[in-house]
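User: I would dearly like some help making sense of a protein record. This is the protein in question:
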Amino acid sequence: MGSQCSKLTPCCWDSQFKAAAVVEVPDANGNEGKSEVDYLPAFREFTFEQLKNATSGFAVENIVSEHGEKAPNVVYKGKLENQRRIAVKRLNRTAWPDARQFLEEARSVGQLRNRRLANLLGCCCEEDERLLVAEYLPNETLAKHLFHWETQPIKWAMRLRVALHLAEALEYCTSKGRALYHDLNAYRILFDEDGNPRLSSFGLMKNSRDGKSYSTNLAFTPPEYLRTGRVTPESVIYSFGTLLVDLLSGKHIPPSHALDLIRDRNLQMLTDSCLEGQFSNDDGTELVRLASRCLQYELRERPNSKSLVAALNPLQKEIEVPSHVLMGIPHSASLSPLSPFGEACLRKDLTAIHEILDNLGYKDDEGVTNELSFQMWTDEMQETLNFKKKGDSAFKQKDFRDAIECYTQFIDAGTMVSPTVFARRSLSFLMSDMPQEALNDAMQAQVISPVWHVASYLQAVAHAALGMENEAQVALKEGTNLEAEKTATSEQK
């Protein structure tokens, strides 16, 4: 039974499988201290304007996921003023008409803090806007890595780790009185900078106060939810079972079909051919057995989350290997090689930055929309362009006070929007020992052009000048990554 195989052989499936059951473990009231996280701020309420700025005006470039007509909610990536990356879920305007109920529910979820969650950091409730703010995890969803992989499939050891981390997340939530999770699926599991899988906190709240808890295909919906329209802790376990089938098969197989395959011992259809030789009969049998128990029709026959953790812990493989290695994800600690621009920012070499910006000119302004009427072109445009021209001349001559004055007149005219002007005025502020003003301009440049590396680089220098070294490092890393992505895209063309 211990020999390596990729397909579970019939010898694994005798009468003892049908009699086997997951031992039910009483629910815990607490969790180990190691699961708590202390690096996150307390839950808070944001203003709509703050989240609008953080997402560059809810720019299309910052959309990371969106749903269909049944649940028209969009998730954006964003960045707060302190450089913390966030995910912002903007709910349908009619989702939570009662502001008090929305705030109470969000605050309750916001009390949770665990290393297995993409934790909820805050919310916004202004007029008819309802938004949730959570940690941003940069390395895609389980669905992307499992069903749409481009470089390599997820290894068996990593699939087991995903299952355990998810079970631990559910156990923690249950211990804190939040056993209900809405529409648990492979899109709800995200990978952080270290490649560790975490459960999205967004699913701990319904998409609406009285709306449906499931938006996936009916074939994957717990049978009791179809009967009653209510989600229960046992419904969450059922959905966990569908995820175990996903992990085993590498496909999104409907639970009823998976159970038929198990009963018919047609395990070749149930196991991922990419896992050839990576697991033993015993391990495969145990995972299938666990999935089968989770997918039982009767609620009382399903295990609880504590039992899932107990069953999955002994199955873990290569526990000493970091997740980012198993996933083939570049580690967060390894920065891409710094470009000359990045090096200049790291050294806080303002003279070198000035030379780079001067040589860059306005080519990165291409594509920035400026809607001007004919009247503006004829009456106001020339004067506005003269302000920019004078500012550029002063900037080139390193007369930064004059540059600030001229660029300010250009910006205040409001007839054109230019991220490069904000970048140049930002550096002029830095040269004039005005770091806060420089930071404001660098952030405004990013609002106009969300993926512009220059804006992030200037934020890094401004943060460093303000003594905010951690924020400076985050911004420098972001600028480096954005510049590398831009370079890679240019080389592909």
